[in-house]
Write a structure and sequence with these properties.
The complex is a heterodimer. Chain A is mainly α. Chain A is 74% helix and 0% strand. Chain A contains 15 helices and no strands. Chain A starts with a helix and ends with a helix. In chain B, helix 3 packs antiparallel against helix 6. The chains are: A mainly alpha, B mainly alpha.
Amino acid sequence: MPLLRSGLLPLFALLCLGSLLVGARELAWADILSLSDDAWLTLTASRLPRLAALVLTGVGLAVCGVVLQQIVRNKFVEPATSGGLDAAKLGILVALTLAPEAGTTVRMLYALAFCLAASLLFVAIIRRVRARSTVLVPVIGLMYGGVLSAIAEFYAFQHNILQSMQGWLLGDFSRIVQGNYEILYLVLPIVALTYAYAHRFTLLGMGEGMATSLGLNYQATVLLGLLLVATTVSATVITAGAIPFVGLVIPNLVAVRSGDHLARTLPMVALGGACLLLACDILGRLVAYPYEVPIGLTAGGVGGLLFLVLIVWRRR
Amino acid sequence: MRRAAGRKAIWAAVSAGLIALALTYLLLNAGMDFDYVIPKRLVRLGAMLLGGLCIAWSAIIFQTLTNNRILTPAVMGYEAVYLLLQSLLVLLLGTQSLALLGASGNFALSVASMLAYSWVLHRWLFRDGASNVYSLLLVGLVLTLVMGTFTQFVQFRTSPGEFSMLLGFTQASFNRAQPEQLLYACVIVAVVCAVGLRTLATLDVLALGRETAISLGVDYPRAVRLQLVLISTLVAVSTSLLGPTAFMGIFVANMAYALARSSRHRATLPMGCAIAIAIFIAAQLAVEHVFNYRTTVGILVNLVCGAYFLALVVRQRGAQ
């Protein structure tokens, strides 16, 4: 089992423990063991939900990245480099202006619809661009995302919500408390489904001709994959905000170690995503202690630098 | 003969359109107020003229050097370097950085850092050949994203006043140019153009590719180095005058090739400048009079030019 050999499990446990103990409010083991109400409240109402949200988001985004990479057949693609993230933002924005009273579920449905449409369009564009240079695909994706976010900014500027949009769309887990993150549990069935279909997604990565001749319904599988991706992205954007690069760095690192056989590597990808997010979150909580730096910034910085290293390294 | 006549007609139309746009911008709803409104607008118009010239000139030269029509110095990381420098200055020195360096000191530092970046670019691009252009483009784009998070991080470490100063650097606008800054920029651009105009013939030869240029007697490394220096200076001027403009250069350069109907730089460069200036004036007019300041020039330009870029990539690649 590559998962056991990879040493990810102890790292994950350690990070979870760290995430529970680090924070503006001192939390001592003695208080928890002596069942002090105050300490238990901090733990159950804030720390545990935050841990759960972090792990779920990390797992979801990393798995999302893998699925998208198999569909597009390009290692440099993930929601942030294919316009998916920007489309989800645009969807939330439209939901906020069209139906201001609607709840989280309606907003998520808008985000889902926009994200799915944008991903379908992106896949269509990439299929049209036949001469695939490996790095041209993410370049197109980033430009595409730029146009989508320019539309969002244009729209937000018209409705005078540009500033607040930039505030609440930056990935941030500090507002997560019991009761407002539960929609993230959607990630669990999605990951289970991805795992069940892992073999088919592996086949997708071999190209349309090969996949079809091996008996795969190509169109349906692509659609299913994009639907899974769009659901995860919209659920995470709506609870935590935009977190770039997680779905890109982790799958690449795992693929370098253990190859592309998804049924074997998916647990490592999931756990790796969770570990990266936990580490970025702890970093964000410590850099300006007792204040917090939003995880969108730490993940963007750490992930972006790792991505740059990957580009330079893959060129060799 | 007919081609030449057609070219002349296009030129006449473009210059007439440009003059009409400039006059509309100056006089629309100004109420002939020569004391306040029109001088203010003249300063902005000056910024647009200089900025448009810089963007078009640097984009066209850069595309000639890299022999690729979907690149511009702005997205290749030059702007990211500029923003990194500005946020580092604010982070390390605070608001004193302005007083300490002054506008011209800051400008000199920007040009120097972009020249250093040019040197790295030069080694990477021209050592291994054109296949790496896209990796470099990707690096530039990711660098821009990372810079974005970095400037936001600086926000957490600085006071609101310092941050608003930094924010001024990160958004495209014509309102920040001061008359004396315009004067400096004008002198620098004049020098660059004087040098650039003397090398127009060399540029035409460079466009034929490295081997051909060398066999035609051009000192290739030296010529490329000179042009990269010109590009860094122009990008530094335009970014410090207007802020980042990202895709604008691609759009301008490609329109210029189409309208000039010639690949001689004597024709394409002035055409590109005219188009860039016209776009700026039109966008500013739209912002001031159509959208009533409810959008910004940067957003409009990104929207139009980004969409054009996508169309260009899809069409070009699909046709192969």
